[in-house]
Design brief:
Shape: globular
Organism: Dialister succinatiphilus YIT 11850
Protein name: Acetylornithine and succinylornithine aminotransferase
Strand order of the largest sheet: 4-12-11-10-7-5-6
Keywords: Amino-acid biosynthesis, Aminotransferase, Pyridoxal phosphate, Transferase
GO molecular function, one term: identical protein binding
CATH superfamily of the largest domain: Type I PLP-dependent aspartate aminotransferase-like (Major domain)
Oligomer: single chain
GO biological process, one term: L-arginine biosynthetic process
CATH class of the largest domain: Alpha Beta
Helix content: 25-40%
CATH architecture of the largest domain: 3-Layer(aba) Sandwich
Order of helices and strands: HEEEHHHEHEHEHEEEHEEEHHEEHEEEH
Largest sheet: 7 strands, mixed
Distance between the termini: 34 Å
Number of domains: 2
């Protein structure tokens, strides 16, 4: 059997895959079984933050692999402590919990928010508001937190205690809080990624932050996709004047290894005590060593370059033939074509460009250090495909 046949025979049918098998890559290029070269504008859904086979990340991971691959969290390890220190120094947050994925990071945030409120106000104050069209993961609880009806089927009963409000509608958010005095937290993405690449407006995000602060409602910011330099700031919330109480992230910080992070500010830093939460693989020395390499390189110069490349993408696609709308920030963009996106992606693959989708949009999440030559070539090929008539 070939790879596609083995996949069909032995792997659970949870993915609709494109008929391409990648076997290797370097930087922002991927190579398939036939030797065809593709420009990668998706970076594994934002995971390959410095591209495929990044030398510095590989060196850090390989060095740690030969020293200490794993010990339990009953003991200390230097990579985990060093990564936590770096994250706190870069963000101003006070404590960090490590897990293995974005969904786990969000579970930790949800549990932490409820524990903070229950400890302070009693067990009835436990409701969490999330945004319609948001996405927070695929566990039972993070599916419940996800404000999309399409995910609220098949797996009943979902975890109770979640309320949903429209993004960028501050009066509706405030009204919902007033109608539900048991709200303990609000959880948002600075840019709704899976929901269609919709940035939060400054007025809404900052208004939510201020209302939450005034009413001791915790502000949880889900930075699984927007974090680690993706928006042109270290974390997406830094584009706004907000002060999150809990921040979750994953994807790019691991560089290709599973790593989830939940960060707590001075209000929430002591919410967890020994035995109240845990993770066998959370803070694994190899994953943390790689993440240290990544975080050390997300500096002002790189963020400035991310912003410039994002502006280039916006300028090139705004008003381009076949494009209905453009939305995003940094190197996270949604391009809405005037044709069915399902017809566009195969044509782009044929041209040698790998993209993602989000609802009706083409979603772009290239490596933060994608060379200008690769970026410009990919954009040019995309514009050609979008301008083509489809019969």
């Amino acid at each position: 059997m070939n790879t596609e046949e083995k996949d069909a025979a032995y792997i659970a049918h949870t993915y609709s895959r494109y008929p391409v098998c990648f076997v290797k890559g370097k930087g922002s290029h991927l190579i398939d079984e036939e030797g065809k070269d593709y420009i990668d504008m998706g970076s594994g859904i934002g995971v390959d933050i410095f591209g495929v086979a990044d030398e510095k990340w590989m060196d850090a991971v390989t060095s740690q692999l030969h020293v200490l691959n794993h010990v339990s969290n009953l003991f200390y390890t230097k990579p985990m402590a060093g990564l936590a220190e770096m994250l706190c120094q870069k963000t101003g947050m006070k404590k960090v919990f490590f897990s293995n994925s974005g969904a786990e990071a969000n579970e930790c945030a949800i549990k932490g928010a409820r524990k903070y409120s229950i400890d302070k106000y009693g067990k009835e104050r436990n409701e969490i508001i999330t945004l319609i069209n948001g996405f927070h993961g695929r566990t039972i609880t993070t599916l419940a937190a996800t404000g999309q009806d399409i995910f609220h089927k098949d797996f009943f009963p979902f975890t109770p205690g979640f309320l949903y409000t429209p993004a960028n509608d501050l009066p509706s958010f405030i009204k919902l809080c007033e109608e539900h005095p048991q709200v303990c937290a609000v959880m948002v993405e600075p840019i709704q990624g899976e929901g269609g690449v919709h940035p939060l407006s400054k007025e809404f995000f900052e208004g939510v932050g201020q209302y939450a602060k005034d009413h001791d409602i915790l502000l949880i910011v889900d930075e699984v996709q927007t974090g680690n330099g993706r928006t042109g700031k270290l974390y997406g919330y830094m584009n706004y004047d907000v002060e999150p109480d809990i921040v979750s992230t994953a994807k790019g910080i691991g560089g290709g290894l599973p790593l989830g992070v939940t960060m707590f500010n001075e209000k929430t830093e002591n919410v967890y005590t020994p035995g109240t939460h845990g993770s066998t693989f959370g803070g694994n020395p190899i994953a943390c060593a790689g993440a240290l390499s990544i975080m050390a390189r997300i500096d002002d110069a790189l963020l400035k370059e991310v912003t410039a490349k994002g502006q280039y993408i916006k300028d090139e696609f705004t008003g381009a033939k076949g494009v209905k709308s453009v939305a995003g920030m940094g190197l996270m963009w949604g391009i809405e074509p005037d044709k069915d996106v399902k017809e566009i992606v195969p044509r782009l693959l044929a041209k040698g460009v790998v993209v993602l989708t989000a609802k009706e949009k083409i979603r772009l999440l290239p490596a933060l250090n994608i060379p200008w030559t690769d970026l410009k070539k990919a954009v040019s090929l995309m514009k050609d495909v979008l301008a083509e008539s489809i019969i």
